[in-house]
């Protein structure tokens, strides 16, 4: 184990690893940045290429490449080791025994990956996805964006996907634990798929893990169906922590020194496709504290392009107060009266 830790460390340059997450500036023999672990306006976070360590003279946080990744991504040593092994191209020997909880999470992540692949295949290739394909075409979401966001379609007949997953040796109990499937109340023990008949969007976190899904109805759906639904809270998915698109936008956010915040999946995908890359969706009209803290690691400027109801919304006012406490600079793109949502503003073509 010790050997592998050293081997990975030797193959990595701490400056390169940190710079990818937090742009560093050269100053003398060191590199500096505003500390990601406390709020500050002048940099006291120092990285030493010679010693391969970092230290913040403001808050005292210090350590090596592993402790940085742990602290920055809020993961444990072992997850940091696995992540860095991948970056360094080192194959980890199986010296850890997964706890039951870990094993369980890994299984759910694998199922989610398969589900996303299945939905995506249905949308892009299968006859059953034709109507959904036509709808996306009408909304001017092109193939490249469909692929980038792994957009999918969930057919009405859930037997297709459950058969596919069972063939891959996943148990029905595990399928239910992902939140995508539930036991049907009618006709004995049958699984239903929560996203039946919907366009699907994998909810990917900043570490590229698919934690859950959201689904949008197609035109012509029954009026009582909610336009969007999300995975329920599971061992993996926590709605309050999800910032949609952050995995794809984080580098642009750092480069542009700001993040544009929109509400829903389409609001983000359309502008992203036109080249506006520093954009995320909060999947609602107000921030949670966790979402703000997550964004704060990448930038201190929020550009709000939320729904026209935003200003009158109590939850929104509260979230602005929270953002100010975290020393965000806040700008508002005013869409009031002109367009119902930012996606429309960008396409200039109102459609529900
Ligand atoms: Zn600090």
TrEMBL record:
Cofactors, names only: Zn(2+)
Q: Which InterPro entries match?
A: DNA_primase_core_N_sf, DNA_primase_DnaG, DNA_primase_Znf_CHC2, DNAG_N, DnaG_primase, TOPRIM_DnaG_bac, TOPRIM_dom, Znf_CHC2
Provide the Toprim domain boundaries.
257-338
The yes or no answer to whether the keyword Metal-binding is present is: yes
Q: Give GO terms: molecular function aspect only.
A: DNA binding; DNA-directed RNA polymerase activity; zinc ion binding
Highest taxon above the source species: Bacteria
Which BP terms in the Gene Ontology apply to this protein?
DNA replication, synthesis of primer
Write out the entry's keywords from A to Z: DNA replication, DNA-binding, DNA-directed RNA polymerase, Magnesium, Metal-binding, Nucleotidyltransferase, Primosome, Transcription, Transferase, Zinc, Zinc-finger
- GO terms for cellular component: cytoplasm; DNA-directed RNA polymerase complex; primosome complex
Reply yes or no: does the keyword Membrane apply. Answer: no
| PANTHER family, sorted | DNA PRIMASE
Descriptive protein name? DNA primase
**Which organism does this record belong to?**
Candidatus Shapirobacteria bacterium CG06_land_8_20_14_3_00_40_12
Name of the gene encoding the protein in the UniProt record:
dnaG
